[in-house]
């Protein structure tokens, strides 16, 4: 039990410190109840207060400078600004005096409660960061302000309700007194009590002064001038380098044939065998890479042996043909009956190939293990995970509290860096040469050949219309490996279709898989939105009118449709040789997008010229950053829809680097991407994964309007486009 005053329930600071035997008080991530952080002795406690940690989230110095801690990864999506901005809003902090730093990687204090009841994780994935931390950061900011107001009230001996605060300055109107947050520090440290923080008032949305305004991102200047530190920039004294040869047959086991030769090479320190790779540690990176290139390895077969990605779709079709359903995801009404009694039934198969994450910064980590193997320091750009210590304690056999993770900026994540395999590999190498620090680097070839991909899959959709042309049944079967990796986004929550069924039918091929931006929404929304246009085209309906009907009971979704129609001038015909296509996506936020394309019928090349997006993302923290997220998502969506694919022959990955893994180039980017944000007072929703999955459907639907032909296999490479034109 925490000691409290019998009279007013307020925590006595000195009594607390005396009775708690070396425990310092911080405000926990729940934003409601205090969390306890152990300290070794009273000296440590005193040091904590000398640093003026008002709560675990913020520090203030006497000159008014404020440090706010960001608990999320920063990989270009803006969390280094958006989350501290929410905190500063409720704290009424002077934003010009705010500096942002990464929080310690301690989920008990800094984890988000927004993932599941009773759990707290530090996990920057799924477009959940702002959504899951919104209430946490608001409450924690309000608590920090409450502590400061309480100190001012005690100092002036006035009721706290008579105080106001703006831009880090507390005012007492009646006496005309003012005091800054920095000036309050001595009184805060010397204060006898802390206020009751179980309930603190939050601002009304219309009182926001930072949220919803154009605030420059905090990390951009350092990224522009080159001072921003990514993990790959980390240099430590006596650091050595590690690389692994993993081959391109996932799961194959290596037998090294020339160990003595490699150990005799200049700079080579040690060879470290893994179940799936051979590790090389050398004094310099160049030496490690040279030794890696000389490795002679006999590789075993694996579960992937014999697998051919182009041929497997025939098997997928057979699985889709089976009468027995797989894992049921949606089952509303009676789809079978509706299909039997339908005026017309539509059926189509949609396919998508494996897609690589292609993050700009190669995977890397730096780890230093103590000489006694009981402690470790980790420098890494990570999307964090279920384990904030990234698997290192398990590798080293030490307690999690003995591992200190220094989170760095990420040069791209897209889901790949939510897997900690590369960190665990580095820990294995670092253990071998402790106490020397080791930097592990995956080359681009490593990551392409032994990466983790968005799964290939097949979506079979059956839909029917009644005599009035209304869609009355919708059946969606997805065949592929990875569960939610292929099945997410399969629901039609914003379309009023009375009879719906969806299931997932499992396959496995021994290929490494991982969440890729928008996960299963990309392939599934492509399939859903494409068949809607097929129905509209056949029924001689405007695809917008068809969606208007379906969205009749979803006013927020409908509002995005109407705004997209307006800003794209949908009703006006496109110029000769151009056409527009439309697509709706829900991925936390709601968005409707329109793409205008042209087609070179000789080469089969599609060009996206203009894109319009209408987005409802609830309360918008940083409008300009949301638009930047949509633009990035659109570019990635176009790239994956038109160009990107991993192919597998006899289990071996065929692509090696960006010379044979095609990405959208600058000259192929749209001339215009226009985003309109629709105001909403709802809780903020994710925006990083809304734009990407809307693109393929919009392009395919524009292609249908332009040619009367269907595109059903992503990516829409020139050869597939020409095949569709000639079908």
From TrEMBL:
This is Xanthine dehydrogenase family protein molybdopterin-binding subunit. The lineage of its organism: Bacteria, Pseudomonadati, Bacteroidota, Cytophagia, Cytophagales. Pfam families: MoCoBD_1, MoCoBD_2. It comes from Algoriphagus aestuariicola. PANTHER family: ALDEHYDE DEHYDROGENASE (PTHR47495:SF2). Residues 225-303 form the Aldehyde oxidase/xanthine dehydrogenase a/b hammerhead domain. SUPFAM superfamilies: CO dehydrogenase molybdoprotein N-domain-like, Molybdenum cofactor-binding domain.
């Amino acid at each position: 039990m925490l000691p409290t005053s019998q009279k007013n329930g307020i925590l006595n600071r000195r009594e607390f410190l005396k009775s708690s035997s070396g425990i310092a008080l911080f405000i926990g991530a729940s934003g409601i109840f205090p969390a306890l952080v152990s300290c070794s002795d009273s000296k440590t406690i005193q040091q904590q207060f000398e640093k003026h940690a008002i709560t675990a989230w913020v520090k203030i110095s006497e000159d008014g400078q404020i440090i706010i801690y960001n608990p999320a990864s920063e990989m270009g999506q803006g969390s280094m600004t958006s989350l501290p901005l929410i905190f500063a809003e409720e704290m009424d902090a002077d934003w010009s005096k705010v500096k942002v730093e990464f929080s310690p990687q301690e989920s008990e204090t800094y984890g988000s409660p927004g993932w599941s009841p009773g759990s707290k994780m530090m996990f920057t994935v799924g477009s959940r960061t702002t959504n899951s931390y919104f209430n946490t950061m608001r409450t924690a900011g309000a608590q920090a302000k409450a502590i400061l107001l309480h100190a001012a009230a005690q100092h002036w001996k006035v009721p706290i309700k008579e105080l106001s605060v703006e831009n880090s300055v507390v005012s007492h109107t009646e006496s005309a007194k003012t005091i800054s947050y920095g000036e309050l520090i001595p009184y805060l440290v010397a204060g006898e009590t802390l206020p009751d923080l179980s309930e603190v008032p939050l601002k009304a949305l219309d009182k926001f002064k930072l949220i919803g305004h154009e605030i420059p991102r905090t990390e951009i200047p350092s990224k522009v001038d080159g001072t921003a530190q990514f993990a790959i920039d980390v240099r430590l004294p006596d650091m050595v380098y590690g690389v692994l040869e993993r081959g391109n047959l996932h799961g194959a086991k290596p037998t090294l044939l020339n160990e003595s030769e490699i150990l005799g090479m200049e700079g080579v320190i040690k060879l470290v065998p893994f179940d799936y790779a051979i590790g090389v540690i050398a004094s310099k990176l160049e030496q490690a890479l040279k030794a890696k290139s000389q490795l002679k390895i006999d590789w075993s077969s694996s579960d992937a042996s014999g697998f051919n990605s182009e041929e497997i779709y025939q098997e997928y079709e057979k699985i889709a043909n089976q009468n027995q359903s797989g894992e049921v995801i949606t089952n509303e009404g009676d789809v079978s009956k509706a299909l039997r009694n339908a005026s017309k039934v539509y059926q189509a198969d949609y396919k998508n190939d494996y897609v690589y994450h292609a993050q700009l910064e190669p995977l890397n980590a730096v780890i230093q293990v103590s000489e006694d193997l009981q402690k470790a320091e980790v420098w890494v750009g990570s999307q964090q995970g279920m384990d904030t210590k990234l698997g290192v304690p398990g590798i080293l056999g030490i307690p999690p509290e003995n591992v200190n993770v220094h989170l760095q900026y990420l040069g791209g994540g897209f889901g790949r860096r939510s897997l900690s395999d590369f960190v665990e590999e580095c820990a294995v190498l670092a253990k071998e040469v402790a106490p020397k620090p080791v930097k592990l680097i995956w080359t681009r070839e490593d990551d392409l050949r032994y990466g983790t991909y968005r799964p290939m899959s097949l979506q079979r959709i059956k839909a029917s219309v009644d005599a009035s042309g209304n869609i009355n049944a919708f059946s969606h079967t997805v065949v592929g490996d990875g569960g939610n990796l292929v099945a997410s986004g399969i629901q039609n929550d914003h379309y009023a279709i009375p009879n719906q069924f969806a299931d997932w039918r499992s396959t496995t091929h021994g290929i490494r898989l991982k969440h890729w931006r928008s996960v299963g929404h990309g392939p599934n929304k492509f399939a859903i939105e494409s068949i809607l246009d097929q129905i509209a085209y056949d029924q001689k309906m405007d695809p917008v009118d068809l969606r208007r009907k379906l969205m009749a009971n979803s006013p927020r979704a409908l509002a995005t449709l109407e705004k997209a129609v307006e800003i794209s001038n949908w009703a006006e015909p496109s110029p000769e040789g151009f056409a527009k296509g439309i697509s709706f996506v829900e991925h936390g936020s709601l968005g409707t997008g329109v793409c205008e394309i042209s087609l070179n019928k000789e080469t089969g090349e599609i060009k996206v010229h203009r894109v319009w997006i209408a987005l409802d993302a609830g309360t918008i923290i940083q409008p300009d950053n949301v638009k930047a997220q949509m633009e990035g998502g659109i570019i990635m969506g176009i790239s994956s829809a038109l160009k990107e694919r991993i192919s597998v022959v006899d289990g071996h990955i065929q692509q090696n680097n960006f010379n044979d893994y095609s990405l959208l180039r600058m000259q192929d980017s749209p001339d215009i991407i226009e985003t309109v944000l629709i105001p909403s007072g709802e809780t903020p929703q994710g925006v990083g994964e809304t734009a990407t999955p809307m693109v393929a459907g919009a392009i395919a639907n524009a292609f249908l309007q332009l040619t009367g032909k269907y595109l059903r296999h992503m990516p829409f490479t020139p050869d597939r486009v020409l095949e569709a034109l000639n079908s």
